[in-house]
Description:
Distance between the termini: 48 Å
Order of helices and strands: HHEEEEEH
Amino acid sequence: MSDAADLQPQSGPVFFDRRELDLILRVYGRMVAAGEWRDYAMVGHRDVAEFAVFRRSGDAPAYRIEKRPALRLKQGQWAVIGEGGVVLRRGRELPQVLRVFDSRRFSVVE
């Protein structure tokens, strides 16, 4: 792709492609099997796609995985955001950003 194509606005909502969704769902499946996560939601807006995970279906999201193509050439289009809006990791490559879930010991606090 050329840089000129990267600068043009996209039409329609931003969403995950099949490869990206596969990587995200692998992490989700691992965390569900560990008993840490229970539910998820996906949404595509004009400028961001979001995959939110929940510890319980009625709670606020525990983590959000965001794709913002407008930031692709700057700080990276991928971000993992924790509770309270804290950015845990940001980057240009999804597998690198998802490693934040490998390095932490998760435990549910009730």
